[in-house]
């Protein structure tokens, strides 16, 4: 990748497994990295200190991505204190798995709000500025399970599939404005969330589904985010890029 102009990159959920790798990669390329964290996240200070000790000066703002007003306040503070957002990575997400028989309204709403409504809530705050400045990158982190469906994930699969519908429609609207919008659909990545799955389940049920015979690495997804955020990716928009070790091809 060629040398990049330094941009302000906002990564939602940047303290999570994938988010942290994305923050580190964007910072390594010289971008100014801002992350959000849930308002109640008590580990923020500790995380920022740990990153500082590794030489990274990240900015962090509280934001509940399910709450529109919280997103308004968060991005307003980022713009005022750090600068206009050039790259938005909609990465915050949750799962609440259960069969449809057991699925209740609370867990449906929570997952759809966190994974899908969040894309509207956050993108709405940055899109006009990107259009006005003639440059922007919006990157939505979906999932292989939004592409193929998954047992016990009607909520998550629906929300993650919805993210790509959002990507495609918005990509059309901003295509001539220097703004690209893309989806990344990772398969199983070896984050803490996935590593918490018992090893025997990983070995017997999950790894056998992956032709490469291993989990993905957060850094591999981060590398793809970095490419989509780059100048070189200017002609790439409305895509849903699978990164899943061959688990699902279409
Ligand atoms: P983590 O659980 O490690 O991180 C999720 C992040 O989302 C956390 O930093 C959390 O912040 C944040 N978050 C959750 N709810 C909210 C909220 N309401 N408001 C603000 N932030 C919130 O997950 P991963 O890093 O593994 O996943 C990141 C993304 O990648 C998700 O969208 C996930 O669906 C997707 N993905 C992950 C895969 C994997 O194998 N790990 C595979 C495919 C997709 P906090 O801790 O502060 O609450």
Overall description:
There is one protein chain. This protein is of the alpha/beta class and 250 residues long. The protein is 46% helix and 14% strand. The protein has one domain: 3-Layer(aba) Sandwich (Rossmann fold). It contains 9 helices and 7 strands, in the order βαβαβαβαβααβαααβ. Helix 1 (17-28) packs across helix 9 and helix 3 (68-81) packs parallel to helix 4. The chain starts with 7 loop residues before the first strand and ends in a 7-residue tail after the last strand. NADPH dihydro-nicotinamide-adenine-dinucleotide phosphate is lined by residues 12-13, 15-19, 36-38, 41, 63-66, 91-94, 114, 141, 143, 186, 188-189, 191-194.
Write the layout of secondary structure elements.
Blueprint: E1 8-11, H1 17-28, E2 32-37, H2 44-53, E3 59-62, H3 68-81, E4 87-90, H4 105-133, E5 136-141, H5 144-148, H6 154-174, E6 179-186, H7 192-195, H8 199-206, H9 218-229, E7 240-243
Parallel strand pairs: 1-2, 1-4, 2-3, 4-5, 5-6, 6-7
The structure holds NADPH dihydro-nicotinamide-adenine-dinucleotide phosphate (NDP).
NADPH dihydro-nicotinamide-adenine-dinucleotide phosphate (NDP) is lined by residues 12-13, 15-19, 36-38, 41, 63-66, 91-94, 114, 141, 143, 186, 188-189, 191-194.
């Amino acid at each position: 990748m060629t040398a990049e102009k330094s941009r302000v990159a906002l990564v939602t959920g940047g303290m999570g497994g994938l988010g942290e790798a994305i923050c580190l990669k964007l910072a390594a390329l010289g971008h100014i990295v801002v992350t959000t964290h849930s308002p109640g996240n008590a580990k923020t200070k500790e995380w920022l200190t740990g990153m500082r000790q590794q030489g990274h000066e990240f900015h962090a703002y509280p934001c509940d991505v399910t709450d529109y007003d919280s997103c308004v306040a968060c991005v307003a503070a980022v713009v005022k204190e750090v600068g206009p957002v050039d790259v938005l990575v909609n990465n915050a997400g949750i799962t609440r798995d259960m069969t449809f028989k057991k699925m209740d309204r609370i867990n449906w709403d929570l997952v759809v709000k966190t994974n899908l409504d969040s894309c509207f809530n956050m993108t709405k705050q940055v899109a006009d500025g990107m259009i006005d400045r003639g440059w922007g990158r919006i990157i939505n982190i979906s999932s292989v399970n939004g592409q193929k469906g998954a047992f016990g994930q009607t909520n998550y699969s629906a929300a993650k599939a919805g993210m790509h519908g959002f990507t495609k429609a918005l990509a059309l609207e901003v295509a001539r404005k220097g703004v690209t919008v893309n989806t990344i659909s990772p398969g199983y990545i070896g984050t803490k969330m996935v590593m918490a799955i018992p090893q025997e389940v990983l070995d017997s049920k999950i790894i056998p589904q992956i032709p490469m015979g291993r989990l993905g690495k957060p850094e591999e997804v981060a590398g793809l985010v970095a490419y989509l955020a780059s100048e070189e990716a200017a002609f790439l928009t409305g895509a849903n890029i699978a990164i899943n070790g061959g688990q699902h091809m279409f």
